[in-house]
Amino acid sequence: MKIPDEQRSIALDLIYDRRIFEGENCIYDPLQRFLALFEGITSSSRKSRAEELAELPIKDRLVRRIIEGEKKGLAEDLDEARGFGLTPLSIINDYLLTGMKEVGELFGRGEMQLPFVLQSAEVMKMAVSLLEPHMEKVDTQERGAILLATVKGDVHDIGKNLVDIILSNNGYRTVNIGIKQTINQIIEGAEGGKVDVIGMSGLLVKSTVIMRENLQELTTRGLADKWPVILGGAALTRSYVESDLAGEFPGTVRYAKDAFEGLALMDAIMGQKRGFPGATLPPLKERRTRRAVNEAMPIDTKRSDVAENIPLPKAPFWGSRVIKGIQLADYVKLLDERALFVGQWGLSGKRGEYEELANEVGRPRLRSLLNQAQSSGILNAAVAYGYFPCFSDGNRLIILDPEKLPHRIELTSFDFPRQRRDRRLCIADFFRSSDSEVVDVVAFHLVTMGSEIGKATSELFESNQYRDYLELHGLSVQLTEALAEYWHSRIREELGIGTTDSHEIEEILDQGYRGSRYSFGYPACPDLSQQVQLVQLLDAERIGVSLSEEFQLHPEQSTSAIIVHHPEAKYFNAN
Description:
Blueprint (H helix, E strand, L loop, with lengths): L4 H11 L4 E3 L2 E4 L1 H8 L11 H6 L3 H11 L5 H10 L4 H21 L5 H18 L13 E6 L7 H11 L4 E4 L6 H10 L4 E5 L3 H16 L8 E4 L5 H11 L4 E3 L3 H15 L45 E6 L3 H4 L5 H8 L9 H23 L5 E12 L2 E5 L9 E6 L24 E9 L3 H11 L3 H30 L9 H5 L6 E3 L12 H8 L7 E2 L5 E2 L3 E7 L11
Helix pairs in contact: 1-2, 4-5, 4-6, 4-7, 6-7, 7-17, 8-12, 14-15, 14-17, 16-17
């Protein structure tokens, strides 16, 4: 049952002691206001959500069930609606989809959080499954169909699956063919699935290049006009899709920033296809800034102004080791709650509302999920890490064979880009150069939560438990980051440089310590292919982690890094 706004506001004022004073006089005391508000009210006088719903006419009740995400009593309400002569198709189109439309509008206005949107989608999915046995074949009309795919080389599917959830619960048929899909598989899936639209998704920067190549292939095969294309993903921008790619692609292509924009685009595309009055696609967005032209330039290998002769820490051992069975209590304290609640779970509100959402929604759900994950045994945290002698040579970091010291025998190397402006930084600059009398030390680590948690999230998606799917997936991602943060602190401690670490979690998450950890694929070292050397150095298969042909770590809940001890090493963009 929704708490009335006034009651909720006063309760929060009481919790956070938001008394208002003029001088020494209290002119607003939330405790007194709270007592007055509930004077004479007993628990028996409050109506349950089920009782409130039962008082509504059946048509309004169905709409309300969707908006409030209330499953209890749904089957009985659907039977009652059919008893009044409503057909299953009418129930879906006129009432359930009306509820989903309002959910979308509430989400768009920032009045409903993503987890509750997915809860509504769960009710919608359940309702449709309960109505399906009563449908005639002529009732199984669909609003349209879309193929959904994460492009070749990309293993991230949470965004695509959210689109699947929203579209499939708003009357569209989705053909979700999964991750790492080539253009051949996409075309075959679109033809076999008899879809109206193709949707491609990807998280990686490289995926934006793959999408361009896919559009070029559709053009080459004469298929540009057969399917409108919707593109989405974290690395894409609207101007890249609707200016750069649309300028090259003779067909229709649009960018969707989220699942609900994807829904609006599907409505417009299908409306145009079926000749609905007023159905139009939004105009393409033109690029406002001039595109940078990448001209071939000589590779700059001159060292920057980073201090070179700093005292070197001593490695506790040479080579790599494996640690398994790491306890949740060891690393959960470094969980970035804001990244989880806002970035992963979509709990966003008006300015100043974060702490309220975290207390009311985020932390209770987090505690429950952590308890479930721990008791079910799906958390299998493990680390492969090690220390290696090294030196820099221009933009290269040369890793030496520790068994051959003091001889400098190259084991492998990493090649890093250098900034063209500012300080002209390069990761190699943070290590002693080849002409130094002593060798430096570099650490690497690879952490994983194991494969079981990924299997658990997939099972939740397949069983239409959408909210739990979103939240467990997001938690798995952030627990992996927390484990990486925890093991980085362990490495600093072993190197003897952990004494300068901040004692505040917020500052630790903002690099409040000496040195830095850099992951391949990010701005300071964007070349993912160099994961190969790291995985080989750490023998990652010992903890069940492998590398795909596109240099992605499997399981997805894994991350790797090069650990730099130099005090000047912080995040920077080398592009």
